Amino acid sequence: MTEPVHRAAPHLPELELQRLSVHFGSVAALSRVSVTLPAGEITCVLGENGSGKSTLVSVLSGLRPHDEGQLLLSGEPVRFRSPRQARAAGIATVWQDLAVAPLLSIWRNFFLGAEPTRGVGPLRRLDVEKARETTVRAMARVGVTHLDPDQPASTLQAGARQSLAIARAMHFGARALIVDEPTAPLTVNQQTLLLQAIVAARTQGLAVLLVTNNPRYAHLVGDRFLLLAHGSVAGLLTRDDVDAADLMRLMAGGEEFNALTEALTALHSELGDR
Ligand SMILES: Nc1ncnc2c1ncn2[C@@H]1O[C@H](COP(=O)(O)OP(=O)(O)OP(=O)(O)O)[C@@H](O)[C@H]1O
C-alpha cells in the first residue's frame, strides 16, 4: 500500500487576532480587535497616542497576556506567558527602544549566544569565520552592505540596528515580525534602511506588523493599514483603498478622521464583499 500523500496545508494566515481585548482596570487598551496578519504582507498599525498600538505589540510579543478573545498562530490558538515563549513560537519583535550590546562586535550581537561552532566534544570551538560571514550575508540581505562585522555594535546607526534585529529574525527562522518604529527621529537614510529591511522580511514570507506614526512611510511599504482609535479598530484598509494623502488626513485625527475612516471602511467592506 502506498503512503498517503500529505498535501501542503492550505495557505494559512500567520497571525490572527479574534475579538482580542486587554483591560487596565476600567480602561480598555484594546477592545475586541480582530485582524489577520497574512504571511508575506506588511500590515501597518496607525493611531493616535493612547490608541492601543503599544498594547498590541505587547500582546503579540508575549509581554502581556490578553484578557479576552483569541490569538491564533497559523490557525492554532496561542497565549504567550513571556517574550521567550513568543520568540520560540517564531514571533520576533523589534522594539522601539531596541538596544544592542554596544561594546560587543556586530557579529556577536547578531548571534548573541547562538554562535556557530565547529568540531565536537572538547574540540568544539566557536567558528568565528563562519559567524562573520553569516552576519555579513544576512545583513546584505536586508540592504546593509560594506559592513565590517568586527566593529563594535555602537558604530551602527539607528536604522542599521533595527536592520540587525530584522536580519537576525530572518536568519533564525521567525514567522512573524513585529516592528515598533523608533520614536526618535530617523534621518532619511536610516529610515530607508529600516524600510528596506522590513520589505526584505516580507519578501522572505514573514507576516509583518509595522507600528508607525508616519503615514507616508506606511504607505510606501504597507499592504494593509489597521487604524486604531481608543483601543478599537477604526478601519482596516488595503493599499487600493487609500493613498498616502488619505492616510495623512486620517492620522491628523479629529472629526475628519472619523468621517474619512467611516467612508473608507464602508467602501472597503463593499469592495471586500464583491
Ligand atoms: N500599564 C498600563 N496601566 C494603565 N493603563 C495603561 C497601561 N498601558 C497602557 N494603558 C492605557 O491603555 C491605552 C492604550 O495605550 P497604548 O500605550 O497601548 O497606546 P499607544 O497607541 O501605544 O500610545 P503611544 O503612541 O502614546 O505609545 C491608553 O489609554 C493608556 O493610557
TrEMBL record:
Database matches in SMART domains: AAA (SM00382)
Domain ABC transporter as annotated: residue spans: 15-255
Keywords: ATP-binding, Nucleotide-binding, Sugar transport, Transport
Pfam family, one: ABC_tran
PROSITE patterns found in the cross-reference section: ABC_TRANSPORTER_2
A molecular function GO annotation: ATP binding
Record flagged with keyword Phosphoprotein: no
Protein name, per record: Simple sugar transport system ATP-binding protein
Source organism of the structure: Blastococcus tunisiensis
